[in-house]
Queue: 3 jobs
Job 1
Amino acid sequence: MAIEERLLITGGHPLEGDVYVSGGKNTAAAIIPATILSQTPCVIENLPDIEDLRVSAQMLRHLGAKVNWIPEQGVMEVDASSIDRTDVPLDLCRRMRASSYYIGALLARFGSAQVPMPGGCDIGQRPIDQHIKGMRALGAQVETRRGIVYATAEPLVGGDVFLDIATVGGTINVMLAASRAQGNTTIYNAAKEPHIVDLANFLNSMGCRVKGAGTDVIRVRGVQDLQSRRPYAVIPDQIETGTLMIAAAATHGDVTIHGCIPTHMEALTAKLLEMGARVEERDDSIRVRSLGGHRAVSFKTQVYPGFPTDLQQPMGALLCTATGTSTVVENIFESRFRYLAEIERMGARVRVIEQTAIIEGVPQLHAAAVEASDLRAGAALVVAALMAQGTTEISNVHFIDRGYEHLEAKLASLGAEITRACD
Ligand code: EPZ
């Protein structure tokens, strides 16, 4: 029986002081499988110590790679030269969405991949049809039997990939496959998220030729002999930065978040300013202050640089105590509002109609026992608990551990009253 862990948070304490953001979960999720592409050992730095990366390291070891991970230093050394199989186990794939990236990476290196359909947060149907479309456009034979994707390519040949959706994972997977394909690949309608650019920079650091990352047309010239020649540090976590910004505003605090990239945060910054919080951007830090009295705002989630869907949930929690009625439209995933039902137990007044949440702000939330349904829903419940009167119990903390490194230690260092209880 797994030990059930809960977070106990007593609200009402303004967060104050300095906090350092960790390396990006979703950028690391792409760059760790990309180490398979290198003929030489890779050293990846600034990695967060989170569950998803432990799973990815297990996948690499299962394939035969030598992996030395020093979580306290955020460093992972990967030597993929000893990989001797291309099948990824089901139990590991079920635990994260990014397992799908092993299709593109294994196809590119070995011309073969057997990868079960990915797991990940239950926020919608989350098919990978665009990933498969991209692999086929590069000449791969791909079929799915009993929930396992079987892909072969003798060899991968560069081509044009027209993505029907600006899918982050689909863009990443095609970039990985194209990196060692024969010839040039052009990805149209590509995602533009910061971690797409980070992956492109990592591939280029190994000798690949990726141009246009960060725009909706990415061109990749495949290079057979990719070699990592120096350590590569992943970019800071955009979503952790945003979660900490929201928590600072929610508690009417004064927090400076260091080691972040302010330009990645513009959509959220604009909304916090609209609400009446104060946000100051510096080179690699953001200071968020608030005296409360937040105005209701409305927003729609969009692909980057629009408002990130991963911040919809923590922001929705903040809006529960804004003055007025806010409207939130979730355009990316089908069911990403379940956290609101939990915050209703704390006194929030919300209505969800299909992809729209109408949030009528209340003066005060009250503590309750609530349950996280996915990673960012967990973050939303933490924000709500930090605002609420009394001590809130959040269960299913393992969701939060998948994507936030030492969240309770960071919040406690800023003055939050937060502890972890084990049943
Ligand atoms: C990545 O998921 C992130 N996960 C998600 O973060 C993030 O919410 C999402 O990008 C959008 O930014 C990782 O990077 C590991 P998509 P991904 O492909 O790649 C549909 C978090 O909390 N779609 O851009 O799965 C899909 O169903 C997680 O850190 C297809 O229809 O996102 C969704 O509705 C949650 N067919 C939409 O596109 C496909 O082949 C966007 O999905 C692929 C996607």
Job 2
Amino acid sequence: MAGTPVVELDPGARNALDEAREQLAAAVDVLGLGSQVFDLLAAPRRELSVAIPLRRDDGSIEVLRGYRVQHNYSRGPAKGGIRFDAGVDLDEVRALAMWMTWKCALLDVPYGGAKGGVTVDPRRYSARELERITRRYTSEIAPIIGPDQDIPAPDVGTDEQTMAWMMDTFSVGSGHTVLGVVTGKPVAVGGSLGRAASTSRGVVAVALKALEHAGIGPAEGRGATAAVQGFGKVGRSAAAFLAREGMRVVAVSDVDGAVHRPGGLDLAALERHVDATGTVVGFPDADALPGADLLTLAVDLLVPAALEGVITSDNAGTVRARVIVEGANGPVTASADRVLADAGVLVVPDILANAGGVVVSYFEWVQANQAYWWTEAEVEQRLVQRMHQAWADVTAYASGRGISLRLAATCMAVERVYRAHLLRGLYP
Ligand code: NAD
């Protein structure tokens, strides 16, 4: 029944899965779907936990743990990234897989949601060790992945090279080259032009719409200001695209710390510094800032583009940004959402804001399966068109019902997935 909570959620220690389940529960409430539908949509369809025995370069052997979770595949093959991070655990992968289901449904790409990960700090391993980890992990999860089943992509701590190794390992096992088994590959081996920057491009396309919605003109006079948390695949290009749109990017951070320059950072110089040193810290033309302080700077736009759970009820009250666009998955917790809503901060949810990556992953899969390649301009034009359409759909849905953008986006996605369930029926 609408308005009645469908699940009792533990108010104590919470992780990303609790957040994802609470968001689903809120959408199920609004849609009036009831607790059985919640149970149906909350449960991951398949989960695989694998041991990854690794021979280190010094000859010693270490056993790592990896996961692949397919949350839902009612609308098509499962799809989602592979994370290499010391914090990876099964619940985090489950949460990220659920968010992928909603993201793919919201953007109407014909996929379900999945995620994978290995509990490992990639910075502590050589490139040869990372290749062995990737190949062994791929062969362990090979029975449940494939272009028609489940298609991985890069996420935190993995990149194009990781995808090339995954594609090669899977192809060797299949006896022929299977380009469509992963996306986010290098262009030279079946990647799509425009994929590397696609998540950031989508983040910025939506951020510009959100700023306009909030009455902030990015390129006007003083140049609206932005801070970006995370300077990896998503954050780095997002900062560059924001600057190109006339915004003043005043602060960026990575796992080691933040740098701040109120007049705007020289991003080209900062990128050279990061390429040379591996971190934003120590960039000479800016002030050092503790990483957490970036989140509370008085800026027009804040783009958290690192990890989940960084804006919580503990620090949400100190956030002074006017608009938050979630480059990362799950950076704002449900309780923080409530604090920010009360303070009038516009939050653009992850499943909308960072969906550009999966949109172009879909384009890559289509191109790879047809062995027919599009130009970069075609990719970008189709990406931006889809992001703008999704923005228009979500804002219309939200304003029509007087609900937040996150709740609107989740409701739209849940409705689509549930409709697929209804049409397919329950087997047996
Ligand atoms: P990445 O590994 O390329 O970069 C992560 C960045 O975050 C690094 O700069 C790292 O130093 C930084 N970081 C880690 N912990 C931090 C902390 N505590 N404070 C500040 N910075 C910190 O990863 P990515 O691919 O850019 O992914 C970032 C986020 O975006 C993740 O939530 C991911 O799930 C999400 N995402 C990525 C894609 C994609 O296409 N890569 C698509 C959609 C969503």
Job 3
Amino acid sequence: MENPALGEVFAHAPVTTEQHLDEVLDEVSRAHPLWAALPAADRRRYLLGCREAMLSAADRIAGLLTREQGKPLRHAQAEVRLSADWFAHTAALATEPEPVARESGARITLERVPHGVVAAIAPSNYPVLLAVCKIAPALLAGNTVVLKPSPVTPLSSLLLGEVLGAVLPAGTFRVVNGEASLGSRLTGHPAVRLVSFTGSTDTGRAIARQAAADLKRVVLELGGNDPAIVLPDADVETTARQLFDRAMVNSGQFCAAVKRVYIPRERSHEYAEALGALARSAVLGDGLDPATELGPLVSRAQLTRVSALVDDAVRAGARLVAGGRTAPRPGHFYLPTVVTGLPEGTALEAEEQFGPVIPVIGYDDPATVVAHVNASPYGLGCSLWGDPDRADALARSLDCGTVWTNTHGELRHDVPFGGHRHSGIGVEYGHWGLLEYTQIRIHHPAPREGLAPRAGDQESS
Ligand code: NAD
């Protein structure tokens, strides 16, 4: 495995063979009925045990996460703590059956039952958190889980597998490691009934196609190209600072980072200069150095992609305000970049760049920008900046999973998150995320004459 801050190999990760994957799937398939038959209270207790186990191993997991992913150590530590707490938040979610109707004295009940074996496929930007967001609700609902992390960042997940494996019953949760071909064998395996995937839109499409063959359920949390729309009255200094920080989260490698900024045309120069000054003052470095604000890109391939998108925009006539090249140091660093004057249709605006780059785009009329961003294939998030009343009114016309006013990319464990259009299918987090890991079973019992109706019961006609 390569440390992206140094561009050097620092460890080797065991790779799962196809035969071993089949054995793992056999084990989790056998474990599923036992796990599903446990009372939910027992599964909740196991989840709380997972939290404790993660917290005990937090320093080891966070250290590996920084070395394989590149993010500052304090951010890796925060990711691990949040992930541990996710087990507790999930354990608190309700799973009880609900009465839905009454007929001839019998209560018709809706139960939430597990799918069976869940394949959890995670990306390279938040490998620990985005794995736990799947593992915790899948387990609570009574599924067993096989996790395949990104082959670029498998070490923290393999350690997570060991740590959780020590507290969970055998076969309830396993981690496998390999390239896309192993992912595809996992998601295509007949033992798997639900694929929960977070990653790029292209991979999501491939998974959906494959899942269609035997009608597996899918939850797809895919790419985003989130716009921030600044209204004319916003204060430049505070807004530019916020936009910069929310674009540069994890060096731009965050699905809900600000990825393009729309500014009233007469003020776009002012904003571009303010963002450029912030870009020039950001401190890049190894995540293990406490002074580091921005780490590297996760891989050489990602660095090449970001570089190519910026070079293409500049060739097409865009102006670089800051950055626009790799940093003169080892590792996969790209200088924080601000670009303006992009000709219409430039790929840097139209595609998800997933790097520390802010395209600043002038506009004449907010309604036209709203129509423009709604026409993008991406519909993950969007933010509006300026007068809250005006922003909230415009928010209702945006076609995306989340609209923020005067903030961007704020996610919570109890608020569902998902994308419209090519940004995904289904949601994660909280009660609504948990439901994705269940299917409905209706229990329509035999008529019970004389059973007194309960408050809330409805007699069907
Ligand atoms: P990626 O699509 O390259 O890889 C994600 C995972 O899919 C990896 O584990 C990979 O090995 C696996 N994979 C690849 N091909 C596969 C196949 N055919 N079948 C099964 N598995 C396969 O994504 P990445 O570069 O690791 O992550 C970045 C992307 O993730 C960005 O597009 C980002 O926006 C997106 N993302 C979305 C969210 C969200 O919640 N919407 C959150 C984080 C990241």
